[in-house]
Amino acid sequence: MVRPGQLTESALLAVREAIRPGVTTLELDAIAERVIRDGGGIPNFQLVPGYRHTLCVSVNDEIVHGIPGERVLQPGDIVSVDAGAEVDGWNGDSAFTVVLPGGDATLTAERQKLCDTTERSLWHGIAALALASNLNEVGAAVEDAIEETGEWGIVEDFTGHGIGRSMHEDPPVFNYRVRGAGPAVKPGLVVAIEPMVTAGTIDSSTDDDDWTVRTLDGSDAAHWEHSVAVHRDGIWVLTASDGGAGALAPLGVTPVPVP
To answer: β-pairing, 169-173 with 78-87?
Structure first.
């Protein structure tokens, strides 16, 4: 039987194949919903009160929770896509960011650096989880990875989270250093690590739709996320088909499948 992390990954892979200039965000949403439902799952975003879509699609200065609609994606847009699936009462949650081809070359390059920096910080956070004694070591690793590549804004209003029977559970997973060690990292812990990074301020506002969160200064944003399980033999990225092996190898971590 397909697992929620696998189904979440499949939906996002289908979106990645379809995303391009000229496509609407609502068309991408329909693709993801079809993959999840055909796979025997439920789009868990639709289980959040007041939200009726499968994806959140956030474009350019939108940080998170962008609502799919008739917006047509343009060359050079930086687009973050977030999705989740529920299967037999268990949840997966993952996100990626992509810079669409075309547009102004200088702007596109800047957006790609933002995208790459955010993805890199995600994998450094996951690698830290593999060796951590306490959960807040993840946030320190994410922050260090971001700061190594330049001056960026690390969003503080939103964090990662535990995931399991509900999509959002305790404990919070910070993307920056905080006081205190946080919960112990031990077998049975499953978390969604999801850095959100901006090219400018971390200050944000929420649109009148009560969902879309965007940077206050209009700067671009990126968002990457994976759901990760800690078990007796190591860690496994539930929303990556290889468990994260390819991305973690350069960081000296070998994920181990969940028994």
So the answer is: unpaired
Band of the pLDDT at 127, cuts 50, 70, 90?
Answer: very high
The residues, ordered by sequence, that sit 6+ positions from 95 with a Cβ below 8 Å of its Cβ are: 12, 56, 80, 81, 82, 83, 194, 223, 224, 225
**Residue 1 pLDDT:** 73
Helix intervals (H) in 71-164: 105-131, 136-147
Q: The pTM is what?
A: 0.97
Tell me the C-alpha distance between 216 and 26, whole Å: 25
Check if the beta carbon of residue 97 is closer than 8 Å to that of residue 119. yes
Give me the amino acid identity at 54: T
| 175 contact partners, CB below 8 Å, separation of at least 6 | 121, 125, 139, 142, 143, 154, 155, 156, 159, 160, 194, 195, 196
Distances (CA, A) of 221 to 116, 133, 182, 192, 194: 12, 31, 27, 19, 13
- For the record, the structure tokens of 34 come out as 């079809």
Cis peptide bond upstream of 171, omega within 30: yes
What single-letter amino acid sits at 201? Answer: T
Is 79:96 a contact under the CB 8 Å cutoff? no
The C-alpha atoms of residue 139 and residue 129 are separated, in whole angstroms, by 10
For residue 41, what are the contacts with CB-CB under 8 A and spacing of at least 6? 2, 4, 7, 85, 86, 87
Q: Per this entry, what is the length of the chain?
A: 259
Model pLDDT for residues 182-229, shown as the tens digit of each residue = 999 999 999 999 999 999 999 999 999 999 999 999 999 999 999 999
Percent of the chain whose predicted confidence (pLDDT) is above 90: 98
